[in-house]
Every structure is written in C-alpha cells, then in structure tokens.
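Example noted here:
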Amino acid sequence: MQKDIQELREKVEAAWNLLDLDNTKILISDLEKQMSAPDFWNDQDRAREVSQKASDAKSQVEVWEDLKKEVEEIEGIEEMASLEADELVLKDLSLKLEEVQKKYNALELQTLLSGEHDLNNALVSIHAGAGGTDAMDWAGMLMRMFTRFVESSGWKLEILEESPGEEAGYKSITFIVRGRLAYGYLKSEAGVHRLVRISPFDGEKMRHTSFALVEVMPELDDLSDKKINIDPKDLRIDTFMSSGSGGQSVNTTYSAVRITHIPTNTVVSCQNERSQLQNRETAMRVLKSRLFQRMQEERTEELDELKGKHKSPQWGNQIRSYVLHPYQMVKDHRTNFETQDTQAVLGGDLEKFMEAYLRSQVKN
C-alpha cells in the first residue's frame, strides 16, 4: 500500500506542476485586487469576465488542494498503522485510498477539458435518421441514455422542443444540460449513432439498422453571446400551439415559437416554457448557439482544407455502433474503444467512451 500511496502522491504533484497551480494562485490574488477596486463594476462586461475567471481559477485550485490534503492524511495514517500493525485500520485505509484514486482519475480527466467553452452548459439535439419507426424509437433510446448519464453526473436536463414519433420515440428532440463541464463531456457524443437489432416493430422479427444524429453545442455565455450579431430583418418568427407526447396540447395558447434565420436557413423551436416571451428568449439563445457553432465549423473546415484534410458530411460522420443482434457490442469508431455490456451503455454508462475520445483528441 505504501508504494501505491507514494505513486498517487507523485501523480498529484505532477498534475499540480503541469497545471501550473502555483501561478494560478498568484493569478487569483491579482484578480481579487482588480475586483476590490472602487471602479471595478464601471465596465460590467469586463467585470463579469474577471469575476468568472477568478471563480473558475479558485475552483480548480481548491479541488487539487483538497486532494493533496487527503493524500497527505492517508500517508500519515498508513505510517502510524504500519508501526502498530493495526490490520483493521489498514483495511479501512485501503478503501479510502481507492476512493481518493478515483477522485484523482476524475480530476486528471478534467485536465483534458481545456477548450474555450468546455465549462459551459450543453445544448443537445437528437434527430431520427434512416429507419422509420425504428429510427424514431432509437432517438428515444438515446434520449433515455443521455438522461441517465446527466442524472448520474449530478447535472440538470430541460427539454426545450420535441417532435414525438407517430408510434415511438422522437422525430427530433432538443434539450439543455446545465452543469459544470457539461459541454466538455457531451461534445464527444456529436455525430451519427447506429443501432443494429431485431426490430420490435417488425412482425417477421427481422434485423434492422437504424440511425440517429446527435448535435451538441455550447450554450453561450454573455460575452460570447454578444459576439453574435443578428439583424432582426434576417429573422422570421412564427408562433404555434405547443404539443407534448402523443400530440397532447401543453397549453391552449399559441405560446410555442419557431425562429428561422433566413440567410442560413437555420430553424429553431421552443415550446416548453410557460409563455411565448420565454419561449422566444430561449429560442434566440439556441439560435445564437447554432450560428456560433456554424462559424466555428466553417473556420475548422477552412483550416482542414489548408491542411488537406477531408471532412465527412453531417450524416456520414458515424461515430458509434450499438449492436444488439446477432451479438452484443458497442464500439466507438473514432477510438476503437468497445464493450459487450450494451445495457450499461444504454443505461447511461458513457464515461469510458468519453474518456477514450478526450484522450484521443489530445494525441491528435
């Protein structure tokens, strides 16, 4: 056990140095001096940016400081217990060490999430593809999978717009996931998900292949939001009656809102807020996120063209296959990570797939 504790301490120290947390503490001190200045809030946009930067830096330092303290405590207790040959204490300490190692693994994974918007909430859309009723049911299965993953992560999920399938699942559904690093993790799920199974909707029990497209965007913070300028003349805004699963009316007023950005033909809808004004505000936030994502993708495509890379079309970007018949297998085609525990994955156990993807991005 002593060797394991020493290895963990060395890993924590290496991560501390890699993240340059000593300098981060100096940065926090500088930011706090700025925040205490009498004229700090004169420029509110700048003030919010500095405040958020200070808050994020403090959170990062605090979690690693807490981890360092836990490792030091384990070292001290192990030394005393070994001298006294206290087997009961050593057994409890072994469990504690395992728990702290898991914390380290989770924090170490978060060091891979350093993208500009990785800390943000995530806007997720699922669209049923080829496969008719089976594809709509598959979209519903993916929705359940993501819901369970979000719940296990301690985040919150709110449905913004849904178009239920005639027999099962969804034609499409859009939701927001609120939580620290939600976009950083969920961005790994963007792309086409393929399902192979015996169709429950086929009387002859034939094997069917279904597809669903998952789109993931960051919800923009105030500063990024202001970078997206939309001319009101470029918008067409329609209102309609909200409807829930099975075509049931959510309310009796035309509170649902559909906004079309005419130059890009980008369409967003929101129907789940209480009023038309709230639905309109939410739809505008989603529209800005979509347009921002479009800008980012266009920039990436330009760079890829310069580098000679080929970019697959939206529906050609198949990222993962879920095979339920004739054998059980979930395989990520980007990382080659796979598992035979299909039910665990469909039940929201996505962490290992996400970790494999994030590590592959660092290598690339």
Observations:
- The chain has ten helices and eleven strands.
